[in-house]
Amino acid sequence: MNFKTFIILLLLPLGALAKQELKVFTYGSFNSEWGPGPNIKKEFELICDCDLIWNTADSSGALFSRVKLTNNKEGYDILLGLDESLIEEAKKNNLFVKHSINTSNLEIEWNDEYFTPFDYGYFSFIYDSMKLKQPPNSFKELAERDDLSIIIMDPRYSTPGLGLAKWISQIYEENSTNFWKKIQDQIVITSKSWSDGYGLFLEGESDLVLSYTTSPAYHSLIEGKEQYKSLKFEEGHASQIEVMGILKNASNLDLAENFLNFSLTENFQKHIPQGNWMYPVIDLRASQKEFYNAAPLPVSIDQIFPSSEEKNRWVENWEKSIIE
Amino acid sequence: MLKVNKIKYNYGKSLFSFDFKLTNSQIIGVVGKSGSGKSTLFNLIAGFLIPKSGTIYFDNRNITTLKPYDRDMTIMFQDHNNFNHLSIFENIILGVDSNMNKTSNNIKIVEDIVKKVSLKIDINKKVSDLSGGEQQRVTIARCLLRKKPLLLLDEPFNTLDPGLRKILYEDIKKISINNKLTTLISSHLIDEIRNVTDNFLFVDKGKIIENKILSYRQLLKNKLFTEYLK
Amino acid sequence: MNKFKLDKGAYIIRLPYFFYLLFIFILFSTTLYFLVNIDSFQNFKISFYMKTIKFTFIQAFLACSISSIIGFFFSLVLYYSNRDQRIISSFLNFCFILPVIFISFGSIYFYSSKGILSTLLGWLSIEYDMKIFSLTGIIYVTSYFNIAFNANFFYRKLINIPNNYLRVLQSNGVPFIKSLRLQLKNYIFSGYSSVIILTLVFCIGNFTIVYLLSGSPKLTTIELAIYQSIIFEADLKMAILLGFTQLIIILLISFSIITKSKSFYTFTSYKNSFLNLKKNIFLELIFWLIIAYFSIPFLVLIKGLISFNLELLISISFLKSLLNSLLVSFLSIIISILFTLSSLFVYRYFLEQNLFFHKLIFLSISILLFIPSLSLSAMIFYLNFQINFMIDSLWIVSIINSLFITPIMFIFLSGKFTENYKIEFINIVLFKVSSVNRLIKIDLPKIKYELILITATLFVLSLGDLTSVTIFNDSSFKTVPLYISQLYSSYRYDDAFFILSIFILLIFQIMYIPTKLIKKNVKS
Fold it and tell me: Given CA atoms A163, A164, A167, A168 in this order, what sign does their dihedral have?
């Protein structure tokens, strides 16, 4: 082998010689050892005669921006892990192709020609009931309780962070910035990603952390710890729907459609509750009883699909409160 | 009177021991091979080193453990006597006013002393702008300003050329006599010191030969000294 | 003197330097082109832009002044402690080059709400309220390195004061502390300007620390903002604009300091300077407190080694990231050595010919120290995007690392390399030594020890680096620091601390190699 070919070999991504491949781009925790990724890969490879390759970005916030930045020149087939607030922007950038999957029989109402949902959840704050004896019952009370410290995620970079901005905007509308200002002193950490922030909460850096109503289920079912609970707000809880879509320059559209189809079957969905710790989009109440018991569905407020302008306004409401 | 009474000092693995006395107002040449202990002797007298045992008296005062600046002496070395980044004025006035304040009084003091050591220069110049001989004169000026009766010169002019050395030794002789100083000059160039004095302390392997001052003629009778001259 | 004719070998030796120049030229011109052609910023928020710049410099000035003052104080205590100077200086040096991620996690482990300090205070029932994820935390960790750096500078200055200076002062009755203010001030502080610039550059460009410890969007430095623009906002324009802003401000500060100063810090050898001291219990106490301060982050090693996890240690993902780390460091070092030797050769050529150009060559290399590594990454990302991602992340990270290593290596080696160049040059001409022979048989043996030392140091620095890899990573390419930070982000603290400990032990091992090599060489 001469030096030149050696260099070229080094430059080539390895594994270019394998069988049919489906490259799915997702956030890190989805494909971590304890996430649903590895199991889903096994199940799908049983039926597709292909290699499912997970590629990951650090957080869900980084996913879409990476594809946008590179125009998907890195050649992913499917992007898994956007949420409904990014859909509009994703369509604008003309990066995805339409699918032909039937989404009418799902737990949630869904009607989008580009994306299919794979799980959903409700935002809430988690607390340790051994330490916090009198949890607040509403946003109003939360803002008044100066003794409480909160960890949230940055609305610009993290989907739960954006979710909170949405939640507050839905409830307080034009008074959102005022509300943000009120709770600003209580916010001790604004983390870049959900897992960063949640970890710091568990390490005792705050009393409350922004997360999902499903988080306590993880502590009770996996760790056997019952002390972690989610706040129940009188105003109701905003929801998040996580979706996936086929990228424009996907190398194998049929295979990608197959995967989307597969994602709405029980073989995919059964790994969601106790893998991604969200509610599945098909009815699995019978088989996932303990999960639903540990994480009952909260009072919900309306699901909205924002335009980019609306989304920017949510973030601006928050930004105004920290710039002073 | 300087009395060095049976002092012992460990230098690495070897033991130095000195024992001698001198009367005041005389010039003594301290000679010997390099490494024989000349500098150690000076450092002990100056107080930079503390002997293991023994005592040092100056004018009947026990100075063995005193700090260098509490002793009635000034010292001058072969190099690094002056702070190159400071001015001539600052380097000289340092001897009496460590704050180096530029008062008119201080300026006058420095100007006077500079004349005494035959320097004709602007005292605001940096020392690093001076020649080697001029730099040593600045040091001498500072030593004089201190007005201490004991003057230790540790190989003072070795880096200078022979003509200049001769002139400076002459200066030192004049200054010592005029100011009634007890001056110890160490050097390994014995011939030059012979022009200044005929009183010698010969140091060999950490000891003073015969523990007293000897003249050049007396020294020549000593085998070790004749070997050293070779 | 006659102009010396260049042989063929000389051109080959000069080649890497010209490649380097070409590369820098392409980078700068594309960036300029890019900047000139920016028509609109989608999400440009002037308030955030100004805030970021303001915060970057506030935290840098704070950290910089704190490190200078404390570093000076530490150096005095270390000097007074009258201990083996080599050990003290190496210790400070060692603290300075420790991976940032190690000190950050070490400090988190000690100071966080469930950390050692809070537990200790809890036993004494004292309430603990320090927040490590805050400006205090950022400045604390930033200062750790710069205190070590500054203390080392002052310490080396102090121990190199000529003996006679101290004797003259003592015999004239000037106390040492007073003389520091009056007679020795200029001596101690000569060359300090270059140290303060470097400290400032380190403080401004401390991406990793802010990345790990910033608990609020208010605490965003330019480097972090660049990272966020690329990763979250897909906004290369903003990234490059921010990088340019930082470069220009650092250059302005540096020039204003450099033009006022006369001398530069050079690496000096050890002399035993003279100090007549008695042991003082109070000083001893402070001495051990300083050692304790520098040792605090090492407590995480205990935690890490207790959480031993064999499965993780032999897991493919860890081994792969370890292999990548070693490969990246190895490649960057090789590239840097090529660049450095080649540019030193050109540099000396101009010195020999008495041409002004040698200053330009020095500048062309050292300018890299001032460019924020993440905006450099952004530029390279853009270039790579233009050629359809032809170049692998591994190579890109190696190249970026090597671009930061090269100036350090160049500055470190330049003194020794050009030592006695005039006499050498006469002999070279006289005996007709070819350029290649000169490099291999005369220059390399001359700088051998320095090269071994700096190579090991920079290898360690590159191994612990967590900047460009945060942008150029994917599932198949990670380095150990990134692996650790990802473990940490996914709340696997025990595993993160364990891998961190293993990583540090590996680094100890690597730093031990050169001392052994040099000893062996001295013996033979």
Answer: negative
The percentage of residues in chain C with a pLDDT greater than 90, rounded to a whole number, is: 28
Q: Give the pLDDT confidence of A294-308 residue by residue, as tens digits.
A: 888 888 888 888 888
Residue pLDDT, tens place only, C357-407: 888 888 888 888 777 788 888 888 878 877 877 888 899 999 999 988 898
pLDDT in tens, A234-243: 889 999 999 9
Q: C174: which chain B residues are within 8 Å (Cβ-Cβ)?
A: 69, 94, 98
- List the domain boundaries for chain C: 51-264+274-306
Q: Which pLDDT does position C523 carry in this prediction? A: 53
Contact residues on chain B for C191, CB-CB shorter than 8 A:
none
Residue with tokens 């002990």: B44
Q: Give the whole-angstrom CA distance, residue C126 versus residue C138.
A: 24
Evaluate whether C197 touches C257 at the Cβ level (below 8 Å): yes
Q: Which domains does chain A have, with CATH numbers?
A: 18-120+241-294 (3.40.190.10), 121-239+298-323 (3.40.190.10)
Whether the predicted pLDDT of C28 surpasses 70? yes
Mean pLDDT of A23-39: 86
- CA distances from residue A258 to A84, A250, A263, B174 in whole angstroms, order as listed: 22, 13, 9, 110
Q: Which of B73, B75, B85 sits opposite C186 (nearest CB)?
A: B85
- Nearest-CA distance from C176 to chain B in Å? 11
**Residue A203 is nearest to which of C51, C113, C231, comparing CB atoms?**
C113
- Residue in C131, C229, C231, C476 to test binding to A, most A beta-carbons within 10 Å: C231
Identify residue C244 by its one-letter amino acid code. Answer: F
Which of B94, B74, B99 has its CA nearest to residue B83?
B94
Hey, which residues does B76 pair with through a beta bridge? Answer: B153
Q: Is C215 on the interface with B (CB under 8 A)?
A: no
The Cα–Cα gap between B52 and B67 comes to: 16
Which residues of C are less than 8 Å from B70 in CB distance?
173
Chains with 3 or more CB pairs under 8 A to chain B: C
DSSP code, position C491: T
Q: Which residues pair with A23 in a beta bridge?
A: A53
CA distance C48 to chain A (A): 8
ipTM: 0.82
Q: Do chains B and C touch (3 or more CB pairs under 8 A)?
A: yes
CATH number of C51-264+274-306: 1.10.3720.10
Q: Which of C163, C174, C274 sits opposite B98 (nearest CB)?
A: C174
CB C337 within 8 A of CB C409: yes
CA distances from C70 to C192, C278, C283 (A): 15, 24, 15
Cβ of C184 and B83 within 8 Å? yes
User: Which residues lie below 8 Å from residue B6, measured CB to CB, with a gap of 6+?
Assistant: B17, B19, B53, B54, B55
pLDDT tens column, A213-242: 999 999 988 888 889 999 999 889 999 999
Query: C179 to chain B: which residues are within 8 Å by CB?
Result: 98
**Residue of B85, B151, B158 to mutate for C, most C C-beta atoms under 10 A:** B85
The stretches in chain B having pLDDT less than 70 are none
**What span, in angstroms and rounded, lies between the C-alpha atoms of B121 and B84?**
16
Residues of A in contact with C215 (CB under 8 A): 188-191
**In the block, residue with structure tokens 């304890």:** A34
Assess contact for C496 and C423: CB atoms under 8 A.
no
List of chains touching C (3+ CB pairs within 8 A): A, B
